[in-house]
Specification:
Three copies of one chain form a homotrimer. The first copy, chain A, is built from six helices and eleven strands. The first copy, chain A, is an alpha+beta fold. In chain A, α2 packs antiparallel against α4. Chain A is globular and about 50 Å long. The two termini of chain A are 15 Å apart. In chain A, 65% of the residues are buried. The mean pLDDT of chain A is 96. Chains in contact: A-B, A-C, B-C. At the B-C interface, β2, α1 and β3 of B face α5, β9 and α6 of C.
């Protein structure tokens, strides 16, 4: 995990920023009327908020590390259709905690992990690829994708969506994995131009499936865009 | 309200253009078969049409002034996911009238008010803020947001959506207002990357709540984008 | 139809690329578990896939020629909200076939027709227009728009959506046609900033209606954008 950037704002609500036009915020004591409007369990007085223009997978996998590491719960995961002109999602993730220091800590941990979880995001002007892998899924991945808690879990993402179909097929054939969800522009996404394939299984098999899909994806997106897809930070899988 | 720009098109359907890639159009006598397909009450032979690539709040608040000032009704308010690569909405607003001059007038008034209603829209490359306030809501605001007719009404908007959450909390705490709606990427928006908070109440309190949220929003978006958010025209609140 | 571009990728799944950041792919034998997740009839072992960042109408009309010319079926037509910052859709189209050579052929024919079906797509920085016409609709147009099989069929598209409303009215008045669907940002699109009008009828009348709408559309989009809308390739209607 990377260090947090220097504090750019004096408001107590401000926690920090990160790659993908991501901002991390905290509210110590949410207004009671707003709390009702948001539909959040009143026991979570404090909320931590992570939002981004670009990126949903990286933020959800980072939030999963945050819920493992802190005394907080993931209350909301919503995926706007964004990426600033790209084909994918942005994100809004809200953590709940009884104590403000726990909510703040969840946001900090999420921001710190983004440098890693953007490692297998590959963008070109024509589209993007994303690969995520964890040895042990927790509550954020369960809420977002239905990942079985405690199991190895991964996703492959391709945009335009046609590439994502081939990534899914490549992953499914490369090793014995359990498919959990296949999402496409009209089903399971916010009309993004992606196919997202989510699967769990034996840790070695899940990793092997992701790596095979990544190899194919880079060739296909490279052929479409006429340039080699590059990692947004440093590959981690 | 600003003056209308010079007429750039000789078609009788053309009314004018405005900020936000906005176009105003009028149809004197809608084709009968199309009328059915559109699902509009047949008594409105004439329709006025305002559409924009960028902006929904500015157009709805301007349309609200138009319905107050003219003999027309707001039949359709639809919010595409647009803003030309930004995180928000565009808009499609259709006025109905029995007489074409009323439909045209509604479009003209809407276009004229946009210079004002873009006054508290603040954009940066990383996101945007929007604040709108009226002392007396009418039928367009009622249809779009459920605003109580005749009451003071306002909205706060932040993109990325995380910022909008803090704006909502700031507004709710700054004065005693009645929350009407809390919209987020997956609920009440067209998957835009915004949280929109709508509220009514005593005129002074509503204004005070908006101003407090605007102050916080400019600091947060400034921290995310590394530049000071600037008004699209001239602030009016 | 244009010639396919030179093969840029050695993977057997790769077929080719085309205008609109379009990629064509084929899978000879879809993984059995993935096949279930995709909800496709198991008898189609082989699938052909066409996906694009920009363009849905051009791809669906091209796919309609492909199903006429090959032994394949259109299984999936999904419309992401894309166009890389523009106001419209991208596309994901999946063909099914019992034999891989048929699936590949369907993709090849689709890619070859795109140069033609982009002929009446007109883009400016402010918005876009699209017109499509066929003398005889087949299964892709039936699936996507409800076009009556074997009949003459056309669509008019305007973005921002306000322009599309006037195009629909112009087409409906220019000749005696049968309206089939009127789609707008909140109904029948993926929150795109378009109004799409689909109609069938006598071949001459349908063509006449499209040509009248095209003439009006170019004037309106020209007035909004301050530049003359230009064909993406060469007009074909």
């Amino acid at each position: 995990p990377a260090a947090l950037p220097k504090k750019a704002c004096a408001l107590t609500e401000y926690v920090g920023t990160a790659i993908g036009n991501t901002i991390g915020l905290v509210i110590a004591n949410v207004d009671a009327e707003l709390h009702k409007q948001m539909g959040i369990d009143p026991k979570y007085r404090s909320i931590g908020i992570v939002g981004a223009r670009t990126g949903a997978g990286p933020h959800i996998f980072a939030a999963d590390e945050a819920v493992k590491a802190t005394n907080s719960e993931v209350l909301v995961i919503e995926l706007p259709r964004d990426t600033e002109g790209g084909g994918g999602h942005g994100s809004l993730i809200i953590f709940g905690a009884e104590d403000v220091s726990d909510a703040r800590r969840a946001v900090e941990v999420t921001l710190q992990y983004l440098d890693q979880t953007f490692g297998d995001v590959y963008g070109t002007a024509a589209g993007h690829l994303e690969f995520q892998y964890t040895a042990r899924a927790s509550f954020a991945l369960n809420k977002a994708f239905g990942a079985p808690i405690g199991q190895s879990f991964a996703i492959t993402v391709g945009a335009p969506a046609a590439i994502g179909v081939v990534l899914a097929d490549t992953a499914a054939k490369a090793a014995t994995v359990d498919p959990i969800a296949y999402s496409s522009p009209a089903k399971g996404t916010s009309f993004s131009n992606e196919v997202i394939f989510a699967f769990s299984g034996d840790s070695g098999a899940v990793r092997q499936a992701v790596i095979a899909a990544r190899d194919v994806g880079k060739q296909l997106l490279g052929a479409l865009s006429g340039e080699e897809p590059k990692s947004s930070t440093t590959p981690y899988i």
